[in-house]
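Please check this one:

***
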Amino acid sequence: MARFYIIIAAFSGFFAVVVGAFAAHGLNKVLAPEMIDVVKTGVQYQMYHALAILIVAFLLIHKPATAGLKASGCAFILGSLMFSGSLYALAMGAPRWLGPVTPLGGLFFLVGWVLLAVAGWRMKSES
């Protein structure tokens, strides 16, 4: 399972860099500055959570049977898809009904962090 999360984290980080570079160098000619800011927010949160997924992967190497860690990683993935994905789509002109997806993605981010905290709390100290 750790391998899966490492691969997802790598792709998510890669995509965040691509979208961020595209926003900085290509989209500024076609999007209003406030929409560029929307894309930058999506990139920022996607990169933060790519790193969070990577942390989950490394923790799973040491605690592979931890269901809370797996659930945390899933929540971070769903959060990234919904939060950052909806921001990217909205900035590019997607229908406004997609707007409520963004806070749902944020909710998944929060759930992921709570699940990570609970999993950490339940780990036995190895010192």
